[in-house]
Amino acid sequence: MRTNSSRRAGKIQMPEPVALPEDVLTQMMIRRLDRSGSLSSLPFEAVDGLNLVISPRSDAPAAGVLLALARSHGARQFFHAATLGPDCRDPEVFLWRLLSDLRRQLEFSDPVPAGLAAMQDSLPNWLARAAALGGLSIAIQDAHELTRDGLTADFDWLPDWLPQGVAVLISAPPGPASEQFRERSAAVFTLPADSAAWESGWNLPETLLQSDAAGQWLELLWLSRAGLEIDDLATLTQAPLTGLDPESPGLLFDGQRIALASAKARDAVARRRLGDHGRRQMLHMKLAEFFTDQSRVDSLESACWHWAAAGRPDKVEETLTNPILMKAMVQPRSAFEALRHWRLLKGSEPMEEALELACSVSDQSSEAILGAAHIFSVGAARQAPVRWLQRAVERAEVENNRPALVRALQRLSAHASISPDDAREMLGRALDIVRKADVIDHTLLASLHHDLACFFETDGRNEDARDQYALAIQCMEAAVGVDSPRLIAWLNNLAAANKAAGDLRAASETLSRSLKLAREHLGSRHPTTAVCCDQLAGIAYMNGRYDNAEPMYREALEITEKAFGAHHPATAACLGNLGSTLDARRNFREAEQCHRRALTILMSAHGQNHEDTASCMHNLAVVLESLGNSTEAERLYRTALETWNEVAGEKSPAFATTLLNLAGVLRDRGAWGEAEALYRSDIELWRELLGADHPHTLGALTELARLYVDGGKPEMAEPLLAHLVERTEARSGRTGTAYLEVVALLAGIQLGSVHHDEARELIREALAASDDTLNMLSAPIQKLRKLMAQFDESAPATRH
To answer: What is the spatial distance between Cα 316 and Cα 299, in angstroms, rounded to a whole number?
Structure first.
């Protein structure tokens, strides 16, 4: 159970993150726009949702308008210019910049996911969280230029639903691209065609384009990813920049770095000076060699980029295995940059071969090996070879690098090839090292206790696991305080362990604290608040406190629907939970509405062959049974069985559960023969999956006995029920619901028989066991009391 691991104001200054080169370039553009003084007034204002700005002539006016709209919207802002630099068109770069900036501004603890698809999947949740914490404006200049293949516009980054408080402002020229955006826009603005004054400051002067002295500098600026430092330009050209005024129109300048200011400036340089692709390749190689010689992380990343642009995969691989860069790959930005290059080198196999050689170097540092292990596990989506981690431990010990040793032990302990005993020993050693440090890293201690808890859970040592989760929380409290929302994920882990151990009271208390923190610090619109409501409601449901569960499930649904929209799978999940609670409260009509709506969402999102769809069909069928609609219930059960067979297989608990319910429908409508065959199949399936004495197996046997009772075959039911009385008592005692149900069934068929007195004594013992307990008010006990009254009223003369 590892953590996979949790204000509108006036004018807010645009934050200045510097993570990727594109961030540097963007900040230079924003400062230039601010200096132009043209962002003060607008004839329109942004609204929540998608805002389309149709820009007939130039990218620069659109950028200024987008920034002004974002600032006037009064929320946190993020800006991206899709044509500003060579990698700005990549949707993956755009999304990584956006999520990294959200993580920084809103202090999210979860890492930015790796890969375009994962980032797209995470974006709705991150936007919902941003909306709950005061809102956000996302401005994207030339959004139609975002593309993966360089040819087709990519709109997949844009979520289907934008929560209240989030404004996405995009610019696009008139034509097909803007029309596609128009269909989804909450507001559309058209800029006037006359923008000559704007354009004059963003286009390169003709005299500069024709200057031989400035030409070589312009070429290098075009080839660069985010401009170049003045000193680097001078070194590369071996000439002072006397012919290039950094303040010239068409250039961006921040006092040290120069870059081309617009797409038109880039196009002009490409047309005039870089039509020869051979020259482009030569200059990329020159830049790559220049940055390689500097031996810094940022310069090596630039070298890698230029080697890739020059078509030199051998040099890309060589640079990626430089120890300086390998060591940095544990950092999010460097990992992101490296993964983009490894993918171009055709995936995980060449990456593993190259990193294997690098890790095998005799004096390779432990931190470089750990960087290699990290980047491989993220890029290949599987664990790094265990020998790398063992090597990292050895090298850290030789180097006396205690922080690296702790990280290496922690990663090695989680490897699939390491035995639980060895893993616990490694984590214990890591804990000792951290505790003895001059300055204790409480967050790291919490992480180690969490990992230990996971191992104890795997071994079934629930009490030890709970102790470790509690220690992890204490460490986090020392790190962030007792009232921090960052505790929520840790508290939820402990609650899950309490739930697994059967301590529902402790689980409820822990989740109540989580919910209190969420409401106080994140607010009533935050997805985490919805999760806490949902989990606490789940404990109430398990306790049979359906009246407590229902309002919390309703709150979770309300938050989730506003955050993700009415047609999102998360909304379907909340509807399903509420529907099951309403079913338990016998509000069958509303329960049916919830499940039908959930099923519509899931069929649209996933189709029939998905486990969530099958589960929803099953739950709807349960409600329909209660409403007397056995025909549709049977159809849904059969369809769900087909889906379970596809997604989980016939030998799965989900298949067995639906099979049992289908048998029940057939029994209730009198199809005794088919029902009996299904019950017998289900019993054998549970025996194979979980064993002969598992509660699910005994439950299926009980239903078969009920079939015999209802079908007028007491001679077949009685020996089966006698067996079940013995087995359920052994499993759950005389107060267990399963035991009470089989006692009632057995006593019912023995009433007035030669076993009358034995059955009466069985009921008496069951009732006595529940005296002075909360169980004495339960439905099975009330049923047994009624049976006892029938036994007392039965005269001996009627027995036979």
So the answer is: 13
Helices (H), 297-331: 297-309, 313-320, 323-328
Please report whether residue 572 resides in a domain.
no
Give the residue from 242, 275, 308 where a domain finishes.
275
> Given the structure tokens 């031989």, which residue do they identify?
212
Indicate whether 577 belongs to any domain: no
- For 171-180, write each residue's pLDDT tens digit: 999 988 888 8
Co-location of 151 and 118 in the same domain: yes
**Contact predicate 529/139, CB 8 Å:** no
Burial string for 394-432 (b: 16+ CB within 10 Å, else e) reads ebbeeeebeebbbbbbbbbbbbeebeeeebbebbebbbe
In angstroms, the CA 662 to CA 652 distance is 16
For the beta sheet containing 228-229, the strands, ordered from the edge strand earlier in sequence to the opposite edge, are 228-229, 257-260, 251-253
Q: Which domain holds residue 263?
A: 201-275
Q: Give CA angle at 26 (21, 27), nearest 5°.
A: 100
Count structural domains, the chain: 3
Q: Are residues 219 and 261 in the same domain?
A: yes
Q: What is the dihedral of CA 43, 46, 47, 52, to 10 degrees?
A: 100
Residue located via tokens 């004594």: 761
Per-residue pLDDT tens for 564-595?
999 999 999 999 999 999 999 999 999 999 99
If asked whether residues 184 and 93 sit together in one domain, one would say yes
Q: pTM (2 decimals)?
A: 0.88
**106 located within any domain:** yes
Strand order of the β-sheet with 187-190 is 76-81, 136-141, 166-172, 49-54, 187-190
Residue 77's CATH number: 3.40.50
Tokens 């329109």 map to which residue? Answer: 44
The full length of the chain comes to 800
